[in-house]
Amino acid sequence: MSKRVKVHLQHQEAFDSTAPVVATFRNGPPPLNQRKDLAFEVFENPTKKQRLVVASSDKVAYQGANFGYLGSSHDYANYAVGVYDKKTKEVRLCNVNQIYVMQQAIKNLSENVDDNRGEDKSFMEKRRDLVEVFGSKKSKRIQKNREENIVDLENISGAASVAQTLQKKISDAKRKLEEERAQDGSYSKEAAALAATRNALLPPCDIDAPTPDRVYDLTKFMDSTVMDSLTIMAEEIIQTLQTTSVAEYAASLNLAALPTRLMLSLPAPYDVNKMCLIVYVAYMIDFYNSHFPIRKSAAVFSEEKGIPLVIV
After folding, report:
1. Total domain count, the chain
2. Domain containing residue 22
3. How many helices (H) and strands (E) does the chain have?
4. Whose CA, among 17, 41, 87, 179, lies 20 to 30 Å from 113?
């Protein structure tokens, strides 16, 4: 049986001022053969009641503090430590305000770090470098959209004169349209309002098309830049579907039911032009569900949804 020793436990407020420093090592305590080489130091600012505990050896240093991110503001426990005196066989009980969590650091680590080669680069250039090295396809596409949105002031030096010319052409077109409506006996305000509503809600379409596939002809009302952007996205989807099923791809992007069904109906190998149409339909559904452009600007919507700005 273990020997029982009777001790008396006592506490006085004076003990707290001489309480020992209690620390724990986040990465585990140092090996036994290295503990004797550790030198502990305590730096204190009495005015701010801040204390910094440092333990160091030849290769490793540890640091703990009672302020900043190392402080005990996140700790909701109270601690006490007992110091046993073998001579008097008494335990001196002390309140401990904080257990110092010692963070490990390697000495002279900064000597092995290369010079900051991006110090002279702009924020946009630094972000582009990070995206090119670590970014996904989606983040690279978003970064490309950001760079395309940058306006070069040298290329718009004549913007004021161009704006005046366009405004004059718009005024001439409105005046000509009013003259034609005055001479057209079949014109009515109700029909004009219906056409304006349809054009506001739907992209240009042929409502008299004989078959559904001829309602929208993308090549007639989209320039080559928009078609190129749709083609790039379609090729990315086709490449992804070579290793992933349509169902998994649609679920990962939370794709709407209509474009998902259209993708499932396409035979393999996939046709790029038909995939462009599906991408366009998916974008139109996103526009409708987001109430665009009522709530968000084109640039914000483009970056949030990952849709090229030229399409938005």
Report:
1. 2
2. 8-109
3. 12, 8
4. 41
